[in-house]
Amino acid sequence: MKALFILFFISLFMVDLSAQTNYYSQDKTFYEDGYTYQCDVTEGSGFVNLYNKDSKYIYIKQINRYTGEEISIEQNRLKQLEEETWTKPKCRSIVNNAFSSAEKQRVKGKEFTITMYIDPDNGKVADVEFIFVNFNPYATIPISVYRKIEVEIKKNIWFKITPEGKKRNYIMLWWGQEPK
Protein backbone atom coordinates (compact mmCIF):
# COMPACT_ATOMS: atom_id res chain seq x y z
CA MET A 1 0.00 0.00 0.00
CA LYS A 2 2.84 2.38 0.90
CA ALA A 3 4.48 1.70 -2.47
CA LEU A 4 1.21 2.45 -4.26
CA PHE A 5 0.85 5.70 -2.32
CA ILE A 6 4.42 6.76 -3.25
CA LEU A 7 3.87 5.78 -6.90
CA PHE A 8 0.73 7.92 -6.98
CA PHE A 9 2.58 11.02 -5.72
CA ILE A 10 5.49 10.44 -8.10
CA SER A 11 3.05 10.26 -11.01
CA LEU A 12 1.48 13.56 -9.94
CA PHE A 13 4.93 15.13 -9.81
CA MET A 14 5.77 13.81 -13.28
CA VAL A 15 2.57 15.27 -14.74
CA ASP A 16 3.52 18.64 -13.27
CA LEU A 17 7.03 18.37 -14.69
CA SER A 18 5.81 17.46 -18.16
CA ALA A 19 3.47 20.47 -18.15
CA GLN A 20 6.46 22.72 -17.57
CA THR A 21 8.18 21.74 -20.83
CA ASN A 22 9.61 24.68 -22.76
CA TYR A 23 8.27 24.06 -26.26
CA TYR A 24 9.77 27.18 -27.83
CA SER A 25 13.44 27.34 -26.83
CA GLN A 26 14.72 27.29 -30.42
CA ASP A 27 13.55 27.67 -34.01
CA LYS A 28 11.23 24.79 -34.74
CA THR A 29 8.43 23.70 -37.04
CA PHE A 30 5.49 21.97 -35.35
CA TYR A 31 3.70 19.46 -37.57
CA GLU A 32 0.36 18.91 -35.86
CA ASP A 33 -2.93 17.30 -36.75
CA GLY A 34 -3.92 19.18 -39.91
CA TYR A 35 -1.84 22.32 -39.33
CA THR A 36 1.78 23.42 -39.16
CA TYR A 37 3.17 26.16 -36.92
CA GLN A 38 6.52 27.88 -37.08
CA CYS A 39 8.43 29.07 -34.01
CA ASP A 40 11.14 31.63 -34.74
CA VAL A 41 13.37 32.60 -31.81
CA THR A 42 15.41 35.79 -32.02
CA GLU A 43 18.94 34.99 -30.96
CA GLY A 44 20.10 36.86 -27.89
CA SER A 45 16.72 38.26 -26.84
CA GLY A 46 14.77 35.01 -26.73
CA PHE A 47 11.74 36.60 -28.41
CA VAL A 48 9.46 33.96 -29.92
CA ASN A 49 7.34 34.61 -32.99
CA LEU A 50 4.82 31.78 -33.26
CA TYR A 51 2.50 31.56 -36.26
CA ASN A 52 0.72 29.26 -38.65
CA LYS A 53 3.09 28.22 -41.42
CA ASP A 54 0.28 28.90 -43.96
CA SER A 55 0.24 32.59 -43.09
CA LYS A 56 0.55 35.05 -45.94
CA TYR A 57 1.49 38.31 -44.19
CA ILE A 58 4.00 37.32 -41.47
CA TYR A 59 7.39 38.95 -42.31
CA ILE A 60 5.86 40.77 -45.31
CA LYS A 61 6.39 44.52 -45.35
CA GLN A 62 3.25 46.59 -45.10
CA ILE A 63 2.91 48.60 -48.29
CA ASN A 64 0.51 50.89 -50.10
CA ARG A 65 -1.04 48.58 -52.71
CA TYR A 66 -1.44 51.41 -55.18
CA THR A 67 2.00 52.99 -55.00
CA GLY A 68 4.13 50.06 -53.81
CA GLU A 69 5.69 52.29 -51.15
CA GLU A 70 6.30 50.97 -47.65
CA ILE A 71 3.88 52.30 -45.01
CA SER A 72 5.56 54.84 -42.74
CA ILE A 73 5.08 55.29 -39.01
CA GLU A 74 3.10 58.47 -39.72
CA GLN A 75 0.81 56.61 -42.12
CA ASN A 76 0.20 53.92 -39.50
CA ARG A 77 -1.36 56.58 -37.31
CA LEU A 78 -4.09 57.15 -39.90
CA LYS A 79 -7.48 55.55 -39.26
CA GLN A 80 -7.54 52.16 -40.99
CA LEU A 81 -10.53 50.55 -39.27
CA GLU A 82 -14.03 51.84 -38.58
CA GLU A 83 -14.82 52.56 -34.92
CA GLU A 84 -16.70 49.80 -33.12
CA THR A 85 -16.97 48.42 -29.60
CA TRP A 86 -17.33 44.65 -29.88
CA THR A 87 -14.03 43.27 -31.26
CA LYS A 88 -11.73 44.13 -28.35
CA PRO A 89 -13.79 42.36 -25.65
CA LYS A 90 -14.47 39.44 -28.02
CA CYS A 91 -10.74 39.01 -28.75
CA ARG A 92 -9.92 39.09 -25.03
CA SER A 93 -12.66 36.54 -24.33
CA ILE A 94 -11.31 34.19 -27.01
CA VAL A 95 -7.84 34.32 -25.45
CA ASN A 96 -9.20 33.87 -21.92
CA ASN A 97 -11.27 30.85 -22.94
CA ALA A 98 -8.39 29.10 -24.70
CA PHE A 99 -6.32 28.70 -21.52
CA SER A 100 -7.11 26.10 -18.86
CA SER A 101 -7.24 27.13 -15.19
CA ALA A 102 -3.82 25.55 -14.60
CA GLU A 103 -2.33 27.40 -17.58
CA LYS A 104 -3.81 30.70 -16.37
CA GLN A 105 -2.14 30.14 -13.01
CA ARG A 106 1.17 29.36 -14.71
CA VAL A 107 1.16 32.62 -16.73
CA LYS A 108 -0.34 34.78 -13.97
CA GLY A 109 1.21 38.24 -13.87
CA LYS A 110 2.68 37.97 -17.39
CA GLU A 111 1.36 39.19 -20.72
CA PHE A 112 1.99 37.96 -24.24
CA THR A 113 1.31 39.74 -27.51
CA ILE A 114 -1.30 38.69 -30.04
CA THR A 115 -1.06 40.24 -33.50
CA MET A 116 -3.82 40.06 -36.10
CA TYR A 117 -3.14 40.63 -39.79
CA ILE A 118 -6.38 41.82 -41.38
CA ASP A 119 -7.26 41.43 -45.05
CA PRO A 120 -8.20 44.92 -46.34
CA ASP A 121 -10.50 43.50 -49.01
CA ASN A 122 -12.92 41.70 -46.70
CA GLY A 123 -12.03 42.82 -43.14
CA LYS A 124 -11.41 39.25 -42.00
CA VAL A 125 -8.44 38.21 -39.90
CA ALA A 126 -6.05 36.44 -42.26
CA ASP A 127 -3.17 35.65 -39.90
CA VAL A 128 -2.55 35.54 -36.15
CA GLU A 129 0.90 35.74 -34.57
CA PHE A 130 1.91 35.24 -30.94
CA ILE A 131 4.95 36.92 -29.40
CA PHE A 132 6.52 36.14 -26.03
CA VAL A 133 9.97 35.37 -24.65
CA ASN A 134 11.13 31.79 -24.48
CA PHE A 135 12.09 32.01 -20.81
CA ASN A 136 8.65 32.97 -19.46
CA PRO A 137 5.63 30.73 -18.76
CA TYR A 138 4.08 31.21 -22.22
CA ALA A 139 6.86 28.96 -23.52
CA THR A 140 5.24 26.11 -21.54
CA ILE A 141 1.84 26.48 -23.21
CA PRO A 142 1.24 23.77 -25.84
CA ILE A 143 0.78 24.68 -29.49
CA SER A 144 -2.86 23.51 -29.35
CA VAL A 145 -3.79 26.50 -27.15
CA TYR A 146 -2.35 28.99 -29.62
CA ARG A 147 -4.06 27.14 -32.46
CA LYS A 148 -7.41 27.37 -30.66
CA ILE A 149 -6.97 31.15 -30.33
CA GLU A 150 -6.07 31.51 -34.00
CA VAL A 151 -9.05 29.48 -35.20
CA GLU A 152 -11.54 31.30 -32.96
CA ILE A 153 -10.23 34.75 -33.91
CA LYS A 154 -10.39 33.95 -37.62
CA LYS A 155 -13.90 32.56 -37.23
CA ASN A 156 -15.40 35.26 -34.97
CA ILE A 157 -13.58 38.55 -35.60
CA TRP A 158 -13.92 40.90 -38.57
CA PHE A 159 -13.62 44.60 -39.23
CA LYS A 160 -14.96 47.36 -41.46
CA ILE A 161 -12.06 48.89 -43.35
CA THR A 162 -11.71 52.64 -43.95
CA PRO A 163 -10.65 54.02 -47.37
CA GLU A 164 -7.16 54.54 -45.85
CA GLY A 165 -7.06 50.90 -44.74
CA LYS A 166 -8.06 49.67 -48.20
CA LYS A 167 -4.84 51.16 -49.58
CA ARG A 168 -2.70 48.67 -47.66
CA ASN A 169 -1.75 45.10 -48.45
CA TYR A 170 -2.82 44.26 -44.87
CA ILE A 171 -3.73 45.96 -41.59
CA MET A 172 -1.93 44.99 -38.42
CA LEU A 173 -3.57 45.15 -35.02
CA TRP A 174 -2.03 43.87 -31.76
CA TRP A 175 -2.53 43.84 -28.02
CA GLY A 176 -0.91 42.44 -24.91
CA GLN A 177 -2.91 40.22 -22.60
CA GLU A 178 -2.68 38.15 -19.47
CA PRO A 179 -5.37 35.44 -19.68
CA LYS A 180 -7.93 35.76 -16.85
Structure overview:
With 180 residues, this protein is an alpha+beta fold. It has one domain (23-177). Helices cover 33% and strands 22% of the residues. It is built from 6 helices and 6 strands. The protein has a 6-stranded antiparallel sheet with strand order 1-2-3-5-4-6, covered by helices on one side. Strand 1 (28-31) and strand 2 form a beta hairpin. Helix 3 (87-98) runs antiparallel to helix 5 (143-156). It is globular, with a radius of gyration of 19 Å.
Summary of the model, kept short:
The chain has one domain (23-177).
Write out key terms for the chains shown.
180 residues; six-stranded antiparallel sheet; 6 helices; 22% strand
Topology, pairings included?
Layout lengths: L1 H18 L8 E4 L4 E6 L5 E6 L20 H4 L10 H12 L2 H7 L4 E7 L6 E9 L9 H14 L6 H4 L4 E7 L3
Antiparallel strand pairs: 1-2, 2-3, 3-5, 4-5, 4-6
Helix content: 25-40%
How many β-strands, per DSSP? 6
Shape: globular
Count of the separate structural domains: 1
Instruction: Output the structural class.
Output: alpha+beta
Largest sheet: 6 strands, antiparallel
Strand order of the largest sheet: 1-2-3-5-4-6
Number of helices: 6
Estimate the strand proportion: 15-25%
N- to C-terminal distance: 40 Å
Unreliable sequence segments: 1-19
Write down the overall mean pLDDT.
91
Task: State Rg.
Answer: 19 Å
